[in-house]
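Long-time lurker. I teach an intro course on protein structure, and each term I like to show students one example going from raw sequence to a predicted 3D structure in token notation. This year I'd like something fresh instead of my usual example. Would anyone be willing to generate the tokens for the chain below so I can use it in lecture? Attribution to the forum is fine with me.
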Amino acid sequence: MRMDSRNLGHKGRAFASTFGTIALAAAASLPASLMASSALAQDNVAISAEECERNQSVGTITYVSGYGYSASAGQLDVFLAKEFGFFDALCLDVEINAGGANGQLLVASGQAQFTALGSASDVMLAAANSRNLKAVATYGNNSPFSIFANEKIKSLKDLEGGTLGYFINITPIAKAMLDAAGVDMSKVSLIKMTNYDPTVVPRGQVDAIVGYASNQPEKLRSLGMPFNEFRPEDYGLQGTYNVMEVNSQFLEENREVAADFMRASLRALEYCLANEQDCVEQISALAAANNQGSAFPADQQARTWAVESSWVRNSNKAPGAHSPADWENEHAMVAKYGELAELPAIDEMMDADLVANLYKDGQLQWPR
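-- Reply from a regular --
Happy to contribute to a lecture. Here you go:
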């Protein structure tokens, strides 16, 4: 909808003028390939002066990226919603912490408002220690984890007598895979990895690693190095891909503002699903401008987003929309393999309506 300033008072006309300036400034900052996206913000977006004042009244909203400038849903779209002016269009002052800090702790404590996690399992493990987090979006029903192994490992059972590397922890879905394959874990030596170089697997320094399917295995494929990969679906296991979390108190007190944050980021996600190369170039340029270019080179980002965008598309739901049923399988896995004294019920951890209500007939309502 377009705001008609003729129907506004002095304050409203001032807002309309400011809104136009913001949109034009955002458009001017974009490369030509992205001007069409900015034009959408300028021509079609208008919120009332009252809604703008409401959104501005909360002050700065801080988003914490747990993995820098990675081209992942729930991360890429937040960075680019800011770059494209979509947050500005909804009068949201968004600050991004891309330092890889522990977003869960910052959001739970109220020092930040939003962060994205790799799967519902991560949310569940965090929720066991803090009840001040609420998941508002899940971006896919493919688990992002896989076990990639030296080519001599023909089945996970072959890991017995060998070594299995992991990064932060062995995820519940990886434990479920190993269990389904009949692996006797007492016969497997576990090694906590200190770097993310996947070539240690084909070079035989470790037999296999629990990794991120869109990252390390794709790097090995790009290098033409032989390896075998085992995915949860090979064992009839279904997981989830990337989850957006918000501080529960912030959500309760500022539900409409939280909805607009998600609306803007999902608008950017919608664009990035249709314009992969543009978005990869943009996020890679941001990484380079902020001294993280070596960690997030454009070729790696392109491989990552090629895989992860397919997970979003294949979810058979509007991007970000979720329901308790989407988490049931993973909830059972965390209950069995997560080693928690108490696991909260799904509806205690999830808000299933915030993002779903942003869509009508599968289409994101922009701006309303």
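Some talking points for your students: Residues 6 and 230 are 62 Å apart (CA to CA). The first helix runs from residue 10 to 28.
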